[in-house]
Amino acid sequence: MILVWFIAILLVGGVACWVAARWSASACRWIALAATAADFALSMVLWIRNYPVNLLQQQDWLRQVNWNWFPEAGIHFHLALDGLSLLLVVLTFFLGIVSVLASWTEIREGVGFFHLNLLWVLAGITGVFLAVDLFLFYFAWELMLIPMYFLIAIWGHERRVYAAVKFFLFTQLSGLLMLIAILALYIIHHSATGVYTFEYSELIGTSMPLHVAIWVMLGFFIAFAVKLPMVPVHTWLPDAHTEAPTAGSVILAGLLLKTGAYGLLRFVLPLFPAAAHWFSPIAAALAAIGIIYGAVLAFAQTNLKRLVAYTSVSHLGFVLLAIFVWNKLALEGALITIIAHGISTGALFVLVGGLQERIHTREMDRMGGLWQTIPRFSGAAMFFAMASIGLPGLGDFVGEFLILLGTYKVSVGLTVAASIGVLASTLYGLKFIQRAFHGSNVHHWELHDLFAREVVILAPMIAILLWLGLFPQPVLNTFAPTMEKLQQHASQQYQAYERGQQ
Amino acid sequence: MISGAGLIAILPLLLLAGTPILLMLMITVRRSHGLTLGLTLLGLAASFASLWVAAAAAPQRVTPLLVVDQYALVYFGMIIAATAAVAGLAYGYLEQHAVEKEEFYILLLTAALGAAVLAASSHFVSFFLGLEILSISLYALNAYLYPRKTALEAGIKYLVLAAASAAFLLFGMALIYAAVGTMDFGHMAGLMMETAGGSRTLLLPGLAMIITGIGFKLALVPFHMWTPDVYQGAPPPVAAFIATVSKGGMFALLLRYFYRLELHNYAPVVVVFTIIAIASMLGGNLLALLQSNVKRILAYSSIAHMGYVLVAFIASGELAVEAVTFYLVAYFVTIIGAFGVVTVLANGNEDAESLESYRGLFWRRPALAGIMTAMLLSLTGIPVTAGFIGKFYVVEAGASSSAWALLIILVVSSVIGAFYYLRVIFALYAGAPEKPAEVAPRMAFGASVLVVLTLLLIWLGVYPAPLLHVLRAALPG
User: Fold this and answer.
1) A35 and A119 in contact (C-beta within 8 Å)?
2) Do the Cβ atoms of A340 and A465 come closer than 8 Å?
3) Residue B387: which of B438, B298, B317, B460 has the closest Cα?
4) Each residue of A322-335: pLDDT tens digit?
5) ipTM (interface predicted TM)
6) Chain A touched by B412 (CB under 8 Å)
C-alpha cells in the first residue's frame, strides 16, 4: 500500500496546492513542500527498515500492490519495488523537495498551477519507476509528459514554446513506437502461451526469433534512447533544459533522463537479451560518441544552462555505455552515475537558476569575477562543477571509474574513447568556473550571497555527493540483489536462445 | 407483419420517431423553448431506457429491413446519448440567436432517427432510407442560423454534395442488385462469392460507388472537401452532431456490411480502404497544420480520426469490432466535448472560432480551459482520457493482424496531430496571468453537459472495463 501512497500523496498534494493558491501562494508552496517531504520520509523509512536489502530467490519484490484493472486483457494495476526502484524513488522525492525549494521565489505567476504540474510530473515519474505492468508503465510514461510540457511552456524562458513542443513531439513519437513494441510483445506472448498479459515477470520469458526480437527491442530502445538522451536523438534536450524554469531543469536532468536509463536496465536487456547482445556494439559506439560529443559541445557553449545540458548528454552516454556492457562493475557504475549525476547536475541548475534571479542572464559573457561579490555561492558552484567533471572523492567519480573499469574488460577501444570524454569534461568544468566566477568583476556586480533557503538546498546535496564518493557501499548493497536478478534473467534467456540456435 | 417481439425490439426507434411528432403538435399549440428541450430530453431518455427492454427481445429481425441485435443497440445508445448532449448544448446557444428555436429539436431527433436506422439496417432499402432521413434533416440543421452567410454556404454545400453522393450510392446499389439479384445483406453474402468470377464487372464498380457514398458521409480523404466549410458554417452543436452521430451511424452500417459480406477477404476492397485510411490520417493531420480556426482544426482532426478508426477496421481481427466501437465512443465524447466548449464560448453573433479567442482562456475561465485541454489531450491520445484507451485498442487491433505499415503511418500522423493540438493548448494557457476575471457561466445547461462529458472522458480513460464488457458481446449479425 505504501507504493500507492507515494503516488497518491503527490496527486492529492498537487490538487491541494492548486486550491490553496487561490488564497495564498505561500500556503501552496508549503503544501507542496510537505507533500514531497512526506514522501521522502516514507521512502527513507522504507529503505532503512529494509536495509540490508535481502531478496530471497523466490521473492522478486520488496513491496508490491497488485489490483485488477481490466483482467480480461491482462491489465493489472501492479506496482512493485525492489532495490533499484527504491533508490530511484528516494532520488525522485529528494529532487522533488529541491525543486519545490528552488522555485520558492522564482515562480510568482500561476503559483498554484505550477505546483500542481510539479507534483504531478513527480507522480508520473514515481509511477514509471514502480510500474511492473507494461500497460501501467506506458500509462505513467505518457502521463509525465503533459505536466512537464506545461512547466516548460508556461514558466519557461524566451523560446519556451519551441522547446516545449519539441520536447513533446520527440517523446510522443518515441513513446508511440514503444506502444507498438509493447503490444507486439503482448501478442507474441499470447500466441506462444495463450495468455494475454502485460505482467513484466511473465513477459520476461517470452521467446521469439532473433529478427523479431530486434524489431520489438528497437521499439523500446528508441523510446528510452530519446529520453536518455542518446546522440543523435538528443536535440530536444539542450532546448528543453535551457528554456525550462529551474525546477523543470532539475527534474528533467535529475529524473526524466533517468527514466530512460531505468527503462533500458529494467526492460530492454532482460526482455530481449539476444537482440540486445546483437545490438550492443552499435549502442556502445553511439554511447561513446555521445560522451565525447556532449563534452565538446558543452565546452563550446556560452549559455550556462546549455552548457550544463550538454554535460548531461555526456554523462548519460556513460550510463548507456555501462548498460550495454552489462557486467557487474559497469552496472554498479551506471547506478552511481545515475544518482550522482542527478544530484550534481540538479545542484548546478539550482545555482544557475539562482544566478538568473540575481543578474537576469544565463550568458557567461555577462558574468565574470562573481567570486568577489558572492564567494560562498561561487564556492558551492566550484564544488558541484568539480563533482560533475569527476573529481575523486565525489559521487560522479566513483560512477565513471567503475564504468571505465567494467568497459575495459570488454573493449579497450571504448574505454579509451570514454576516457577522452572524461578529459574533455575537465575543460568545460574549468571554463565554467573561470568565465563566470574568476577574474575581475568587470560588470561591477553587487549581489546577495547564498540565501538561507539555498544553503538548505545545497548542503544536503554536498553531503550526498561526498557520501557517494567516499562510501557508496550502502547504495551498491541495495542495488546488488536487483542487479543479480536482472543479470540472471538476461543470461537465462540468452542461454535458452543459444541452445535454440544449436 | 411485425410481431409483438419485433415491436418491442424497435421500441427505441419508435420512441425516437414519436418524440418529434409530439413536438410538432406541441409547437402548434404553444411555442416554448424550455418545454421543447425538456420534452426532447424526456423522449431521448425514454428511448434510452427502452434499450434494456429491447435487449430482452434481441436479437430480432424486424421486417427484412432491420436487425435489432446487441450491436445495433450499442450504437442506438451512443446515438441517443450524443443527441441528448447536443440538444443540451444547443439550448443556450440558440437562446442567443433570433431564430425560431423549437424546430431545431425536431430536426435533431429525426436526424438521430436516421442514424439509428442506419445502425440497424441490413438491407439496401433501409440503408438508403436511413441515410436520407439523416441527410435531409442535416441540410436544414446546417443552415439553421440562416441570417448568417456562412450558414447558408454550409447548408448549400452540404446539400449539393450529399445529394451527389447519395446518387452515387443509389447507382452502386443498383449495380450490385443487378449482379446478385438481392438487396439483403444476408443473402448477398453467399451470392457475392459465387458470382465473384462472373459479374465482377458489375460488382466492383458497384462497390466502388457505395464506398464513395459512405466515404462522403464519413468525410474520408478524398471525399472530405466539404467538412471544414460545413463545420465552420454550421452552428457548433450541429457540427458536433455531424462529426459524431452522422458518422457513427454510417460506421455502424459499414462495419455490419463488411462483416456480413466478409469483404475483408476481398482484396480490392481492402486495398482501397487501406489507401483511404492512409490518405485520411496523413491528409487530415497535415491540412490541420495550416489552420488557425478552431472549428476547421477540429474538422480536419475528425478526418484524421476516421482514418485511425479505419486502421482497426481494416485489421479486422477478432478485436476489430470492439476496437472500432470503443474508439467511436471515445471519439463521440471527445468531439462533442470540444465542440461543446466552442459552443459555450460563443457570444451573440460571434462563434469562438479563431485561435485568438482562446488565448489565455485558462486565466479567465480555468474550468472551461481545463475541459478543452482534456478534450484535446484525448484527441492526442494521452492517458487518463478515453482517447488513450481508444488509440491503445486501435494499435492493438492493428498489431494483432500485423498491419505494421499502417501502424507506422498512424504513429507518424498522430505526432503531426499532436503538434496542432499543442498549438491550441498553448493558446489556452498563453498570456500573462492577469487577475482572474470571473465570468459567470452564461450557459449553465451547456456547462453541465460539458462537466458530464469530462467525467465520462476520464472514467472511460481510467476504468474502461464495464464498457468493454458490453462491447465484447456486441458483434454485428
Assistant:
1) yes
2) yes
3) B460
4) 999 888 899 999 99
5) 0.87
6) yes
